[in-house]
């Protein structure tokens, strides 16, 4: 079988499409034929900097895939050959709080990833996909969708009528907009692109702010909430935007801290968090139980993930370059078979 491999610290152009031995599932495992794999920013940065992550060479990248079960290992129950499934970002996080041991089961990092024609995963590391979704659509769910779902549902779900601030228009933020629609929440969305903001309005965004034209966007967000502040922020920028997100949040509000798209530099005042009794909570994808609950909502509302562009398996490098350009809206997907 063929698989893309990180074989050096040479970045995207050094990725190699190599032959690997055919796989057989062991006890408690399933063999999954991959039809599509989506890209996350984390996958790109892993390829660009594998050394700091102490990855062995070769490592197969990517955490997100959709496909079908083609063989079962001994002792696997409740699954059958032909089942349509997606990979779970963490192969061994069934439910409950995250732990260091769980973090060591992340696909495309601590464990081999899924940008291959076949993969073997623990039976608990795959999950049935909503029946109305295509392979491409289902491949977008394991990381970006589940991260957004987690951010909006923990420590308690966003309530109807609440206001959620979404930063940017990448995969997490677009999914968060779609989930806010079904949860009855009002959104304010920031971006440097008026065209992307217009697309977010077509998806249901109530208010939009171009942060390039309005560098004090946190003030605009407060004004759009009559000076009170937003109830929750889906914060994907990191240190470069976190202080502004805190400023935009109401007393007693929540900031779900997810990414570092703005870089690792920035200054945050803990006094502002304390005085406003704000909860800042780190979000690292989610458990299989959360994934199941999210899929139930997606199926019930027949939600369709937003895909910007798809690429042939042999053209995977181009897909990662597209991710680095940051011109996409929604998700980028690689067709595997």
Characterize the structure shown:
The protein is of the alpha/beta class. The chain folds into two domains: 2-143 and 287-335, Medium-chain alcohol dehydrogenases, catalytic domain (Quinone Oxidoreductase, Chain A, domain 1), CATH 3.90.180; 155-282, 3-Layer(aba) Sandwich (Rossmann fold). Helix content is 29%, strand content 25%. The chain contains eleven helices and 15 strands. The strands form three sheets. Strands 3, 4, 5, 6, 7, 14 and 15 form a seven-stranded mixed sheet that branches. Helix 4 crosses helix 5 (171-183) and helix 7 runs parallel beside helix 8. The longest helix is centred in the last third of the chain and has 14 residues, at 288-301.
Distance between the ends: 12 Å
CATH homologous superfamily title of the largest domain: Medium-chain alcohol dehydrogenases, catalytic domain
CATH fold name of the largest domain, please? Answer: Quinone Oxidoreductase, Chain A, domain 1
The biggest sheet amounts to: 7 strands, mixed
Structural class: alpha/beta
How many β-strand stretches?
15
How does CATH name the architecture of the largest domain?
A: Alpha-Beta Complex
CATH class of the largest domain: Alpha Beta
Radius of gyration: 20 Å
Descriptors for this entry?
Quinone Oxidoreductase, Chain A, domain 1; 11 helices; seven-stranded mixed β-sheet; 337 residues; Rossmann fold; globular; alpha/beta; six-stranded parallel β-sheet; 2 domains
């Amino acid at each position: 079988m063929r698989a893309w491999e990180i074989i050096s610290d040479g970045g995207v152009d050094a990725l190699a499409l190599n032959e690997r031995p055919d796989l057989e599932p062991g006890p408690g495992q399933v063999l999954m034929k991959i039809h599509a794999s989506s890209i996350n920013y984390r996958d790109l940065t892993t390829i660009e900097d594998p050394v700091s992550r102490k990855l062995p060479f070769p490592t197969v990248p990517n955490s997100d895939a959709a496909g079908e079960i083609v063989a079962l290992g001994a002792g696997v129950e409740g699954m059958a050959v032909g089942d349509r499934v997606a990979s779970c970002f963490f192969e061994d996080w069934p439910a409950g709080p995250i732990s260091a041991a769980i973090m060591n089961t992340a696909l495309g990092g601590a464990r081999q990833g899924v940008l291959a024609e076949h993969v073997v995963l623990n039976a608990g590391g795959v999950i049935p996909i909503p029946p109305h979704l295509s392979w491409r659509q289902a491949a977008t769910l394991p990381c970006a969708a589940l991260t957004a779902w987690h951010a909006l549902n923990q420590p308690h779900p966003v309530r109807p009528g609440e206001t959620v601030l979404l930063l940017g228009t990448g995969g997490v933020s677009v999914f968060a907009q779609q989930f806010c629609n079904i949860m009855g929440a009002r959104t304010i969305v920031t971006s440097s692109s008026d065209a992307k903001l217009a697309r977010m309005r077509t998806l249901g965004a109530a208010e939009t702010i171009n942060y390039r034209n309005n560098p004090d966007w946190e003030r605009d967000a407060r004004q759009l909430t009559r000076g009170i502040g937003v109830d929750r922020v889906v914060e994907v920028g990191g240190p470069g935007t976190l202080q502004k997100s805190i400023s935009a949040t109401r007393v007693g509000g929540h900031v779900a801290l997810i990414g570092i798209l703005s870089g690792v530099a920035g200054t945050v005042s803990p006094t502002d968090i304390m005085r406003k009794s704000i909860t800042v909570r780190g979000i690292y994808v989610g458990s299989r139980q959360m994934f199941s609950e999210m899929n139930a909502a997606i199926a019930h509302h027949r939600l369709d993930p937003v895909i910007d562009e798809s690429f042939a398996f042999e053209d995977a490098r181009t897909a990662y370059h597209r991710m680095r350009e940051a011109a996409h809206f929604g998700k980028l997907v690689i067709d595997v078979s």
